Amino acid sequence: MRNLAVLLIIGVTIYCVIDVLRSSAAERLGVHKGLWVLLVLVVPVLGPLAWLGVRWSRRSSGGPTQAPNRGRTTGPDDDPDFLSRLDEEHRRTDPGTSDGPPAA
Predict the structure, then answer these.
(1) How far apart are CA 55 and CA 59, in angstroms?
(2) Which residue from 19, 23, 22, 16 is spatially nearest to 43, judged by alpha carbons?
(3) Which of 43, 66, 67, 88 is a Cys-bridge partner for 47, taking CB atoms 3.0 to 4.6 Å apart?
(4) Which residues of 35-64 are buried (b: 16+ CB within 10 A; e: fewer)?
(5) pTM for this model (two decimals)
(6) 33 in any annotated domain
(7) Is residue 89 part of a domain?
(8) Where is the composition biased (Basic and acidic residues) (predicted)?
(9) In this structure, what are the phi and psi dihedrals at residue 3, rounded to the nearest 5 degrees?
């Protein structure tokens, strides 16, 4: 069991070092990458936990590191510009229909 705990700590530490190196400045709270890597490597358990806590809070808060729609594309039925263009095109191609009262 003791060996498993050591392997777990090493694995989390390696994961955190790679994650720090791939992170943006906003995710690191403006701290230099080297300082985060040093903290993760020098303080074996608390360093990775501190990084994971900061990373989780920054990424889950939807702060400046994420786009408003989180990289998802919106469907055309969610785009009012698309709907108005579609309606206008429909009116041009089929002039017999209108939104007004029926013709007598």
Answers:
(1) 6
(2) 16
(3) 43
(4) ebbebbeeeeeebbeebeebbeebeeeeee
(5) 0.56
(6) yes
(7) no
(8) 82-94
(9) -65, -35
Q: Which residue has the tokens 């939104």?
A: 99
pLDDT for the residue numbered 36: 92
CB atoms within 10 A of CB 83: 12
d(CA 48, CA 46): 6
Instruction: Indicate the number of domains in the chain.
Output: 1
- Residue 84's pLDDT band, with cuts at 50, 70 and 90, is confident
Angstrom distance (rounded) from CA 42 to CA 53: 17
Residue written as tokens 């579609």?
Answer: 86
Between residues 60 and 29, which one has the greater pLDDT? 29
Domain span including residue 58: 1-63
Range in 3-17, 63-77, 87-101 the model is least confident about: 63-77
Tokens of 76: 């055309």
Contact 48, 40 (CB under 8 A): yes
User: Is 73 inside a domain boundary?
Assistant: no
